[in-house]
Structure prediction request, 820 residues.
Amino acid sequence: MNSSQRKDHWIKIFFASNAVTSIIILGLITLFLFKEGVEFFGQYRDALERYRKSGMEYATVVTKQHDDQTLLYRYLESILSQEVESMEGIAIDSTKKIQAQEKTKALLQLTREFQNTKEFLLVYEKKMVKWAAETKLFLLTKSDLIDVKKQAISSDLPEEDFSESIEELIDRQSFSHTELARWQNYFIRHKREDLAKRINPMVGTESGTHKTGEINNLTSIIQESAISQYPDILTKQDNRFSTILSDYKPSFILSKSETDFKKAKDALSEYLVNVPLYKERLTTWDPTKDYPLHRAFSGFLLGKDWVTNSARQDWYGVLPLLSGSLLVSLIALALAIPFGVGSAIYVNQVATAHEQTFIKPGIEFISAIPSVLIGFFGIAVLGGMVNLIAGERLNSLTAGFLLALMTVPTIFTLAEDALNNVPRALRDASLSLGATRWQTCARVIFPSAITGIISAILLGFGRVIGETMVVLLCAGNRIAIPNVSSGLGVFAQPVHTMTGIIAQEMGEVEFGSIHYRALFMVGIALFLIALLVNFLSQTIAGRYKASY
Amino acid sequence: MQEAPTANPENSSSENTEEYREPAIRIKELDFLYGNNQVIHNVTLDIFPKEIMAFIGPSGCGKSTLLRCLNRMNDLVEGARIGKGSIEIHGVDLHDKSVDVIELRKKVGMVFQKSNPFPKSIYQNVAYGLQIQGVKSKRVVDQKVEESLRKAALWEEVKDRLNENAYGLSGGQQQRLCIARTLAVEPEIILMDEPCSALDPVATGRVEELILELKNEYTIVVVTHNMQQAGRISDRTAFFYLGKLIECDLTKKIFLNPSKQQTEDYISGKFG
Ligand SMILES: Nc1ncnc2c1ncn2[C@@H]1O[C@H](COP(=O)(O)OP(=O)(O)OP(=O)(O)O)[C@@H](O)[C@H]1O
Ligand SMILES: [Mg+2]
Prediction:
């Protein structure tokens, strides 16, 4: 090997190692993301299974039913309050006043009666929630205990105070707090603080079960009550509900109240139609039924709720975040495409060399502005303007505007490149045939660059959907699927996004917890979207190159 | 190269220069500049209807520039301008305010050195000029496309694949397609800038034949570096050197008996 060959050799190695390093890093990131994220599904399934086994699932149905009743009650309450208000204008001691008082008194009676009837279910619901919460604690404690016991065995700790076998633990229906304290001590004595930490003898103190000295598995009691107590409550309620309203001889001060009352009656009969459904769900509820893993998958992908730190059950459905991200991106692209592509066409086709020298750097400079500053601008200036249109400062419209601002440079630069790549000869040919500049642009240059422009737009989309700071600051951060039924208003609803939720919640979650893994799954979803967009834009750009 | 298939230049050139004819293009004392760089110096030249005029000269002497002045393609070049003098087509100054450059370019078509079909179908390429003029009738367009392709001697080769992409054609076919595309607009004058420089001898022969045929209907100005080609196809030849018109005469005369030493040196290959 002579010296120039040797030099070539080293140059080759240098570039090859660069390429290999970036591929390895990409691989590691992918691997890490997936490793942290994938366990989510198992954990989520376990959590949802606990939700069912503890009876919380049951309690939630009861709560929903009671919520329905509360809604009915609110109808009556609001009628009552508008009646009372209308009385204020009437002179005291007049016969009219006395009549009116009579009327409201009857209505008050009715409302009270309704509330009392509702109370039957409320009492039951409270009881169910309490039992379910206790059972949930019991189940959590049990799975923790089984886990620490396994670790104690595997690290050969002497049995001493923690002599229960795993089988015994599995069969337990309750744990006493003194027992838990003893086991915690046992681990502390053996210098296993890490395991001791996982046993909490104070567990359940808040739920009030602490007084009984133990935490219990009450699932079977809940299930029994579905047959022994719940149907009775329903029969009692149904009868009263229907008699209360039909017995009441409506006579109101306001005519509006009359129509409202009719509406309330309609709502009640609708509720009564739904009662058998609740009953069906509750009496056939089966805590022993397994929770399949695919439900955890679909629960994540199609779940409509993202609820964390809930007393009852956390839900990790990606849909509200995904739809929020997509909505914001849609708004951003709808604005950025015309501006980005339009200015690319202008600069490429119309602008003089002098104009080009300041338009291009000007647009490209936008991308140098730190996104947090753009966020400031959004909150301080743009928010005020959006407030005028939408009645709210921070929502998807604000975030969309800002993201558009941030993507215009990306789309502009790439689209301009694509236009520039169209051979001059094509332009000359078109002009020499007597085409105007606009005809040339529309019929020759733009179609020739269209694939490049599409890939520019896709990359812009990739930038938008991955942007974090601006959406976190300006999208309004309300976790809800945008309500499409509100027409154009859908574009001005506060949303939360995939990137935003990760940035917001990652700092506070406990390492390795299900919430932590759920955030990783959101990250993976984001990663896959970015990958797909990149892939698409590359295939399109590839086709574009092939055509010359 | 002398035996390449061509028509005979001898008898076509002689008769028409005797009596005075109205020139199709009249270039008068033209100076042309790119910014401050003057590339055409005081050129005066008449080009007559239905003749083939060849521009020859060493590289960089301003042949393409002068050609592009004739349909104002230089308008697109920033800083390009006429210093003095004028160009008239049928007596109308090209740079007169009343001249519509779009109309001008329809009348003065151009074929480029490197074939540059649009990335569209063969049919679309030829129909383009009509479509931008707003011709909607499919029958009219179809007819014109066929006519133009026939005139460009391409019809037989492509009639079964009109809807295929033009990039599927060979280089020579592509160049003839570009000529057909120009013909479809029905120009009076066709400017050709080294139309054969990217073609092999056979394809060159076909394009030369075509040019000779077109002569019956069109005024043609062709830039070429190929002396034999100029000899084969043109009636008259203009020799340029460093932006100046050195000599313009009947092709036969220029090649056999040039009046200027520079011309003789160039033609005999002493420089350039
Ligand atoms: N767009 C332009 N901007 C500035 N100068 C130009 C431009 N086009 C050509 N020139 C200059 O004008 C002069 C003449 O160029 P032109 O292309 O007309 O020569 P040509 O005779 O066609 O040469 P060739 O035989 O190599 O095609 C050259 O010096 C060239 O550098
Ligand atoms: Mg040239």
About this structure: Strands of chain A lie at 174-176, 214-216, 306-307, 315-316.
